[in-house]
Specification:
The complex is a heterodimer of chains A (766) and B (280). Chain A is built from 24 helices and 13 strands. Chain A is of the alpha+beta class. In chain A, strand 11 (597-603) and strand 12 form a beta hairpin. The longest helix of chain A has 87 residues, at 479-565. Chain B is α/β, with parallel strands linked by helices and 280 residues long. Chain B has helices at residues 38-56, 95-100, 140-157, 180-187, 223-231, 237-245, and strands at residues 13-20, 28-29, 36-37, 58-59, 62-63, 67-75, 78-81, 93-94, 104-113, 119-128, 165-170, 190-191, 194-195, 197-202, 211-212, 257-259, 275-277. Chain B is globular and about 50 Å long. The chains are: A alpha+beta (766), B alpha/beta (280). At the A-B interface, helix 1, strand 2, strand 10 and helix 19 of A face helix 1, strand 4, strand 9, strand 10 and strand 12 of B.
Chain lengths: 766, 280
């Protein structure tokens, strides 16, 4: 049993030294003048926690807490204090430090390495000196926060991906590996270059043959990584994962909101995506992404999942050759995906128009090859009076095919025209009433005709065309204002789509948690169902033994009874101090054989005499046998006991085969039954898992479809707005043309769809 | 494999401290130079554990909600939140909020080595979330029942998380019956990652050698300690490895039980965040 005194560091088994805890360090660092030996630190200022009075501010990992100390000269240091035994780390850090110092700064892609000193007597805590790592404080934003802030700046993200690639290349070409590449250890400086921190797990050539002390962050490492993978290639999996994540976000910022959780300690892929890619929601999104380059890299990384760490390829620029560009399609350097339907969209774009750049959401989900929308499409689809349809508008279609409402209009007109005369005659109204009534009736008739005409589809369509032309007129009268308004409309459209997409992305993201919890619930349920059965399964051998013993018991009892019965009480005469008189007294009391009593009991009699002995008969009755005291009774009880033991020893120990077989069959049945129960429960759980996975996958697919449809619809509307904006460019000429078209359209409506024409139409059908 | 779930903000852990506040806790423990009330020992332990957890989960922007923490007191006729100050009356509180809201920060004087072989008296800051309270009986069974309902609710809403950890700090003399069945029921709750872990810290005046993480009840001084040992969960394998890396001798049957010794090291057993560790 291990025993340790609380509070004091102890040296336990194997010379392991107990290190201070984070709180121990926090307490010690409240007095830098006492706890440090290094002059920079001793006279420095330790950064304090924002909670008043709580003391130094810590940033903790699983092995250490880091504090910030600013020296007198203004230099800020990060001080890493270890909470787990790092005694053996000193020599490693020496090797790492030597290797990093030997790097030629000029030959590196960027100044990613950070200098450090390993101070053996770094900090005095719990009455003892402990080592610390003293590093210059790195100003930078951790990768996760940086992506979160910059994800909409595709060019910046892509350039970070390139810089990261360059850092990995630097490491690879010097035979160095970091060991724990992850968002917390990759900082982005203000100039956009990368810094690597935390070299605890670093491999440098001098450490060849050593084993890893850690395996890195679970959301960045291959599940197959082990301590023996310690070597120059151990970063490869994480490097691919990080690069893919950056490329994905640069290509499609929506992927960040779909796959990254605000609170998650990962970028867009996490441990479960590596361990169980089949249930992953991330892989289908990446592998099925419309962007060819992203898809290609996703396939490469997906391929790495089953491979041993030693067989992973190096992440290098040559490994990332983009697929050959399609003919006639130009890629904009540093931009996101080429705009959708690049060729066509570019012709729609008005020169110098502010909103001309295709927003990120439009490039989402759209196939890069083969334009989905052409310049001509918006006018045709949108139904607006663009120039493509404006000319056609002047050719107004005449009325055709009467409908019941037209007949109604005609009837109403006729009736109201005739009504006053009829009424006058019939009701004997004064004649002076007639002209007024007739006027009213005529007015009603005209209204009826006008109403009927306006409800005709031909009229409506023509009017809509006129409205479109009038709007164009207004736009052309104030082209700048119209341009601005179209701009605003586009912005609004962008905002709406962005908002809807964000909501969809959030939902897609939350599906991951839903799936995780759903599967966990199924496991919990399965465990609850099978726990009892498994316990019973484990008890089966004991149960079998018990059943066999129970089955034997009657035979054993009969055998013992028989033996005792055959032993006459006379045989007890061999016992010491047992005379014929005593035996006779026993026989008189009904005890003729050893089977006639089961034992003796005693009771404390009155007075100071010995205890009184009673014989317990087979019937349970207690009898006193005259002349037999405690001593003789005890030896008689022992005599019977030994007879019974001997009888038991000679009793049959095996069951007759049929009985034994019956018991064995019973146990086998139970065993099979339990196995079936477990199997059924497992089968049901698998079905439930499949159903849950399918439900979540379907839901994700539905959301993706919605998103895509929304994107396409918005793109159509946007292209239409762009088209209108473009047409504002030649405003003067256009205005003349539209004025002409407008009056032509109006004249045409009057000519072809006038009230007279309608009247003739309702009456004649032509 | 059980007890391997990530502890993170998206998958937080649950830590419930049960604190004996009965009258018997006012008895002194230990002997010689430093006699301290048991209740004081226990409240110091809680305050230290909360500090330790907060530091362990501290990041650049502050303390992250890797855990939700409850401190439940039991004594007299009361079983409920033992937080004082801004958190008074609350059960499970996200760790970030706990860290930002100690009831007060005490300045304690302490003798520390001056680095030159001598000792020097300094003052250190000590955050306090609860003070020692001693009053009435020890309704341990009810306290375990209280934890039971918190835990039941937690596993329902966090089915894939690391199982809740319940740490009971007591002198062991339950006054509302044998707590064993309540303990068994509490430890029967489970997430997909495993069953609830129930650990016990026994502070006692009986004396005897302090014991940390024993693997049998042999050598425990009294029935109370043996009962608490039996109620305690067996340490999961990764925690065993940490215990062993701290110098404790461990075996398959090592339990989360500590007798009259420091238990703050238990915080070191928690793999917070997401690092997969290679244990020696």
């Amino acid at each position: 049993m291990a025993v340790s005194r609380g509070g004091r560091p102890v040296t336990g088994t194997g010379g392991i030294r107990k290190f201070p805890t984070g709180a121990n360090y926090m307490e010690a660092l409240q007095h830098p003048e006492l706890c440090f030996r290094d002059p920079d630190l001793r006279n420095g200022t330790v950064q304090q926690s924002p909670v008043v009075g709580l003391g130094p501010k810590a940033i903790s990992g699983n092995f250490a807490s880091v504090f910030s100390v600013t020296a007198r000269d203004g230099q800020r240091y990060a001080l890493k204090c270890f909470t787990r035994d790092t005694s053996a780390m000193g020599t490693r850090y020496d090797a790492i430090s030597t290797a990093l110092r030997a790097l030629d700064a000029g030959a590196l892609s960027q100044p990613w390495s950070v200098r450090f000193d390993f101070l053996e007597q770094g900090v005095l805590a719990l009455g003892d000196w402990f080592p610390v790592l003293k590093m210059a404080w790195v100003q930078g934003t951790d990768l996760l926060t940086w992506i979160d802030r910059n994800r909409h700046d595709a060019a910046a993200v892509r350039s970070l991906a390139d810089r990261f690639l360059a850092v990995v290349d630097d490491l690879e070409s010097h035979g160095i590996a970091h060991g724990d590449l992850q968002h917390g250890n990759i900082l982005v400086a203000t100039d956009g270059t990368v810094r690597l921190v935390d070299y605890d797990g670093m491999y440098v050539p001098a450490l060849k043959g050593e084993a890893a002390t850690e395996n890195g962050h679970r959301n960045y490492q291959s599940p197959r990584r082990t301590a023996t993978d310690f070597g120059p290639a151990m970063d490869r999996f994480s490097a691919w994962v990080i690069h893919l994540s950056l490329v994905a976000v640069a290509t499609d910022a929506g992927l960040w909101s779909q796959l990254h959780d605000d609170q998650g300690e990962y970028l867009i892929l996490s441990e479960s995506d590596f361990k169980d890619p089949a249930t992953s929601l991330a892989w289908p999104l990446l592998l099925g992404h419309p962007d060819e380059r992203l898809r290609a890299e996703a396939f490469r990384v997906h391929d790495l999942l089953g491979k041993p760490c030693s067989a992973l390829p190096r992440l290098a620029p040559s490994a990332l050759k983009p697929p050959a560009p399609r003919s006639g399609q130009k890629r904009r350097k540093g931009a996101a995906t080429p705009p959708v339907g690049a060729g066509a969209a570019a012709t729609v774009q008005a020169p110098g128009s502010v909103g001309g750049a295709i927003p990120a959401w439009m490039s989402d989900r759209m196939a890069t090859g083969g334009p989905l929308v052409t310049a001509g499409a918006p006018a045709a689809v949108g139904g607006n009076a663009g120039p493509g349809t404006a000319h056609a508008a002047t050719a107004v279609a005449p009325f055709s095919r009467r409908r019941p409402s037209d007949v109604m209009a005609a009837a109403t007109a006729l009736l109201t025209t005739a009504a006053p005369g009829v009424l006058t005659v019939a009701a004997g109204q004064p004649e002076a009433y007639l002209p007024l009534a007739q006027t009213t009736a005529l007015f009603a008739a005209v209204t009826a005709i006008g109403f009927g005409r306006r409800r005709r589809p031909e009229y409506r369509q023509a009017k809509q065309q006129v409205r479109g032309l009038r709007r164009r007129m207004r736009e052309l009268k104030d082209p700048a204002g119209a341009h601005r308004r179209l701009e605003q409309e586009m912005q609004k459209l962008d905002q709406t789509v962005a908002k809807d997409n964000a909501a969809t992305d959030k939902r897609i993201q939350s599906l991951q948690t839903e799936l995780r919890d759903g599967l966990a619930r199924i496991t919990m349920d399965l465990n609850r169902r099978t726990d009892g059965v498994r316990r019973q399964q484990a008890e089966l051998p004991a149960k079998e033994q018990r059943l066999i013993a129970d089955a034997l018991e009657p035979e054993v009892r009969a055998h013992v009874e028989n033996r005792l019965r055959r032993t006459s009480i006379q045989d007890a005469r061999n016992l010491p101090n047992m005379g014929a008189k005593t035996i006779q007294a026993l026989i008189d009391a009904g005890i003729r054989t050893a089977a006639d009593y089961t034992g003796v009991s005693f009771s404390q009699g009155p007075g100071s005499g010995g205890r009184t002995a009673y014989f317990v008969l087979g019937s349970g009755m207690h009898v006193r046998v005259p002349g037999i005291g405690e001593g003789r009774a005890t030896s008689l009880a022992d005599w019977r006991q030994s007879l019974e033991q001997r009888a038991r020893a000679s009793a049959p120990a095996t069951l007759p085969a049929p009985v034994l077989n019956r018991i064995r069959a019973e146990i086998a049945t139970l065993r099979a039954q339990y196995a079936t129960e477990v199997k059924q429960a497992e089968g049901k759980a698998q079905l439930d898992r499949d159903a849950t996975q399918k439900r979540v996958a379907d839901e994700r697919q539905r959301l993706m479809n919605d998103r895509q449809q929304r994107g396409m619809e918005a793109q159509r509307r946007r292209a239409d707005l762009l088209q209108r904006q473009k047409l504002l460019a030649g405003a003067q000429m256009e205005r003349t043309r539209v004025t002409g078209e407008l009056s032509a359209a109006r004249a045409e409506i009057r000519r072809v769809l006038g009230a007279g024409k309608y009247l003739r139409f309702v009456l004649s059908g032509r | 494999m059980p007890y391997t779930a990530e502890i993170s903000r998206t998958n937080p852990g649950c830590f419930i401290f049960l604190v004996d506040q009965s009258a018997s806790m006012s008895d002194p423990m230990g002997s010689g130079e430093a006699t301290q009330q048991r209740a004081e020992v226990v409240s110091d332990a809680i305050n230290r554990l909360l500090t330790e957890l907060s530091v362990k989960c501290a990041k650049e922007e502050g303390v992250r909600d890797y855990f939700h923490v409850a401190v439940i007191g039991y004594g007299h006729s009361h079983v409920g939140s033992a937080f004082q100050g801004a958190l008074a009356g609350r059960d499970l509180v996200p760790l970030g909020e706990v860290a930002n809201n100690p009831a007060r920060v005490e300045s304690r004087t302490k003798k520390v080595p001056d680095g030159a072989g001598g000792l020097v008296e300094t003052s250190v800051q000590f955050p306090v979330w609860m003070d020692p309270v001693t009053n009435g009986g020890t309704p341990m069974t009810r306290a375990l029942g209280y934890a039971d309902s918190l835990v039941a609710n937690w596993v329902e809403t966090h089915p894939s998380g690391f199982p809740p950890i319940v740490l009971n700090l007591t002198d062991g003399e339950s006054t509302d019956g044998d707590p064993t069945s309540a303990a068994i029921s509490l430890a029967s709750h489970a997430t997909a990652d495993g069953a609830v872990l129930l650990f016990n810290l026994h502070v006692s005046g009986t004396g005897g050698t302090p014991v940390t993480f024993p693997d049998s009840e042999e050598g425990l001084p009294d029935t109370y300690s043996r009962l608490l040992f039996q109620m305690s969960s067996v340490l999961p394998s990764h925690m065993r490895s940490y215990a062993s890396s701290q110098g404790h001798r461990v075996s398959e049957t090592t339990r989360g039980f500590v007798y009259n010794a420091d238990i703050t090291s238990i915080v070191e057993f928690l793999d917070i965040g997401t690092r997969a560790t290679e244990l020696r």
